[in-house]
Amino acid sequence: MSGRLDKRVAVITGGGRGIGAQICRTFAEEGAVVAVLDIQQEAAEQVAEEIRGSAGQAIAMACDVTNRDDVEQAADQIERELGPLNVWVNNAGVSYILPFLECTDEIWDRTLNVNLKGAFLCCQAAIRRMLSHQGGVIINMSSQSGKVGNSHYAAYCASKFGIIGLTQSLAVEFAAQGIRVNAICPGVVPTPMWDTQIEDYARKRGLKPEEVMSYFESKIPMGRIGTAKDVAHAALFLASDEADYITGQALNVSGGSVMH
Q1: Closest C-alpha to 26, from 238, 233, 253
Q2: Would you state the CATH architecture of domain 9-189+228-250?
Q3: pTM for this entry
Q4: Which of 8, 21, 26, 46 has the fewest CB atoms nearer than 10 Å to its CB?
Q5: What residues are annotated to the active site?
Q6: Alpha-helix runs per DSSP H in the chain
């Protein structure tokens, strides 16, 4: 039985861990031929090997999304090896939690470069190629912090609000060419990224690190933390023909934490 993405070529940046890795697995389970892109080649290869071990199709390659040459070369290689691009998911991202007045130029620039410029470069690479074969799907990873500002998170919020603006602009510009562009706005999802910043968040709220996740649960109407699978299922829907009339949207996957 064919999957919802049967034989479609799907690219996932930041695919070596966390939400990106789960999107790779979920897409492969639904028949996609997956290109796992990550700045860490080893992490990308581990995910690709896992997919191949489950009878899926995947390749892995290192890619720095802030570098135009890296992105264009990766896109060329993917089309040479796998065929025309059908789906591109811009998931690579970084996050820092710190007071605004302690945010350095370096942290600001790195956050905007990876999260927003990276999506810009990848969207250009994807759209150029999708135009040549009359259509495709782009999914940009925003955040609930792209809908509602949060203290100690200025650079991240700025980048994720920017992702939604980029998504809407491209959706309007390329709808007539059969290219759909949507964003996903996850809430709190425990990933390796969270492991590196949970102490910073605890400090911000005056909590112990081990209290942070239960604090989040108490604030979420559905009463549980999100999972990578929750986000991957949303990405699968947006990538599939079931979402054929949906473009320019920023879909909340946050258990009711954000409703606009």
Answers
A1: 233
A2: 3-Layer(aba) Sandwich (3.40)
A3: 0.96
A4: 46
A5: 156
A6: 18-29, 41-53, 68-82, 105-112, 118-132, 154-174, 192-205, 212-219, 228-239
